Amino acid sequence: MMIFVRVSDEERGLPLTLSAISRYMVLRGESVPAVIPDRQMEKFKFMLDYSEEAVEVCTTPLAVGEQVRVIKGPLAGLEGELVTVDGKSKVVVRLDMLGCAQVDMPVGFVEKIYF
Q1: Is residue 81 domain-shared with residue 108, that is, in the same domain?
Q2: Rounded to 10 degrees, what is the CA torsion of 75, 77, 82, 84?
């Protein structure tokens, strides 16, 4: 789950005192909290308001051919090869354990496996 806050530099530590918040999102290679521009935040809120399905946020870019693990849904725990990424919200995963079945699922249902 993601929670967005608008705080000053002096108030930055306050949200971290809440048990529901463990850390701030940071940009790759940086250590300070990410700042989302107002216009981008407006577009994100619009997308959330008008999306018919739940919006899944994928924080790790996925590429075709990578090994992934299903982390949500009835197939959680299975591993396979990422076959397609539609660039929006769906991926197709080839699951060898199911006789090379290809399963279409939300991108938020898989995570990259690091060896």
Answers
A1: yes
A2: 30
**One pLDDT digit (tens) per residue for the chain, 115 residues:** 678 899 998 999 999 999 988 888 887 788 888 888 888 888 878 777 776 666 666 666 778 888 888 888 877 888 888 887 775 556 677 776 555 666 777 778 888 888 7
- What radius of gyration do the chain's Cα atoms show? 17
* Cα gap 1→79, rounded to integer Å: 23
Q: Is residue 45 part of a domain?
A: yes
Return d(Cα 31, Cα 5) in angstroms, integer. Answer: 17
Domain span holding position 31: 15-50
Q: In 10 A of CB 36, how many CB atoms? A: 13
DSSP string, 60-84: S---TT-EEEE-SSTTTT-EEEEEE
Q: What is the 3-state secondary structure (H, E, C) of 21-37?
A: CCCCCECCCCCCECCCC
